[in-house]
Amino acid sequence: MNTLARNSILVRLGRRILPHRTCVRTASSSSLQKREQLKEGPSLQDFLRGTTEAETSTVYIADRGKPIPYIAPETLRGQKQKVFLEVYGCQMNTNDTEIVWSILKAHEYHRTVNLKEADIVLMMTCAIREGAEDTVWNRLKHLRLLKRKRETNGEKPLQIGVLGCMAERLKKQLVEKEHSVDVVAGPDAYKDLPRLLAIGQRGQKAINVLLSLDETYADVVPVKLDRKSKTAFVSIMRGCDNMCSYCIVPFTRGKERSRPIKSIREEVLQLENEGIREITLLGQNVNSYRDTSDGSLEDAPKEATLLAPGFRTVYKSKVGGLRFAELLTELAEAVPEMRIRFTSPHPKDFPVDVLETIGKYPNICNSLHLPAQSGNTQVLERMRRGYTREAYLNLVREVRRIIPNVTLSSDFICGFCGESEPEFADTVSLIEQVGYHAAFLFAYSMREKTTAHRRYSDDVPEEVKQERLRRMIAAFRREAERLNSLFVDRTELVLIEGYSKRSRTDLAGRNDGNVKVIVPAGRVRSDRAADRDDVRPLGVGDYVAVRITGSNSQILKGEPLYHTTIREFYGNA
């Protein structure tokens, strides 16, 4: 093209542009709106970076040191895609799934309970033991076949995401070993899920397993998965600083941080308005709760965290903040007709003020989880638990002195690194000496990254572990059966939770001590003083006085007497 022709084209182009620029000056409000939209949009660097990444990488991995790729806001919307949620592991995972669903629901995703309808499958996973991870790997094989079948048949694609502790622990291995996985999100990355899903839908794998020092999801109101249930989980803190040598949790959940009391109180009051009758406060180390959010506390005395006598930590004593006893007091007084439970605690964080608070309020359940892990002082030292057998037994005595009708539960591990037969025998004797109404008993499963993985050898043969596990279970069941028999002929306050799994003619609930109670369905007196003819049916969410008539190592059976309330029952007890 010669110079004359090129100049002619430029002149014509200039004539088209100039009127447009004049129009812009006369429509300043429209221009401002467009400028604001441009501020929210991508820069040239975003386009260049997006092009480069799409060409050079099939896996996006979130990194604090790198810019976040631009995603058009409209692609963050779910556009009514259906999400199928699967939960594995502890109560914390159930609550995390409710947080995830709240986030996705706000981004216009829909939930389905039918896998065949799903556009997206999200699995909330657990990494505490090898068996828990094996379950997820096997499930992923099934989902991979379903995904390939859809691709072969030309059906709608299936996006698969792995969330939670296993996602944090295995990270990129999940997309390298199991190619069907599209999205991997750790426990502190749930707010990033809409963006990760959008990246996954354009052909890339997306991973965000960054841990946070302050994320508590205090600004996210969980959406219950079971809308019929009258019980709910409330997360109050996240992470763990204890660094027990066998435990992977500090590496998958990060350091401890707590929600403000104000936000917890607001959530609990909202749950009460929705008809919830019982809450369980959740945290990896729930009773080390410490709210440091209130600016007014800056001038308050900086008191060190109190521990139970004879217990120690691997970290420096924490100073300042509102503690667990203060949170319990706040909630117990705010919702006097709502039961309050909590899990999972550490025995070190049961100073006298916490125990006295539990004993003071009738709506704080007299049921404590005291995870011992072992009954032998040398094994406890290798586990870095921060106490001896004697300190643990002293705590049990103090608990029973302050809370006379308390029921106890615990966690125990057999076959930990170097555990000898005499050391294991101390665990069995502790189970028999203390007596637990419930216990979670496991053979040791070594986890990578833990202190035990670095320092010790997993040297107890598997067959020995399993034999010891059977002996632990037998010892626990003998004591549980004996303890449950002591309920017979007592009147217990029971919260009805639903039908018994074995019969639609029976209802199931739990007493204050968290023991399951089976009662016949039907009508009972409307209150303690009501006439025999003044009756109404039992339903989910009802508090009822029950006379216990039978027991075994797992459940109680009883006769429902009358409808009641927490204050009425304990005021007359």
UniProtKB/TrEMBL annotation:
The keyword 4Fe-4S applies. GO terms for cellular component: cytosol; mitochondrion. Gene3D superfamilies: Methylthiotransferase, N-terminal domain, tm_1862 like domain. One of its GO terms (biological process) is regulation of primary metabolic process. Residues 226-482 form the Radical SAM core domain. Residues 81-202 form the MTTase N-terminal domain. Signal peptide: none annotated. Its cofactor is [4Fe-4S] cluster. GO terms for molecular function: 4 iron, 4 sulfur cluster binding; metal ion binding; tRNA-2-methylthio-N(6)-dimethylallyladenosine(37) synthase activity. InterPro entries: Elp3/MiaA/NifB-like_rSAM (IPR006638), Methylthiotransferase (IPR005839), Methylthiotransferase_CS (IPR020612), Methylthiotransferase_N (IPR013848), Methylthiotransferase_N_sf (IPR038135), MiaB_methiolase (IPR006463), rSAM (IPR007197), rSAM_horseshoe (IPR023404). Pfam families: Radical_SAM, TRAM, UPF0004. Keywords: 4Fe-4S, Iron, Iron-sulfur, Metal-binding, S-adenosyl-L-methionine. Residues 485-562 form the TRAM domain. Potential regulator of CDK5 activity. Belongs to the methylthiotransferase family. MiaB subfamily. PANTHER family: CDK5 REGULATORY SUBUNIT-ASSOCIATED PROTEIN 1 (PTHR43020), MITOCHONDRIAL TRNA METHYLTHIOTRANSFERASE CDK5RAP1 (PTHR43020:SF2). This is CDK5RAP1-like protein.
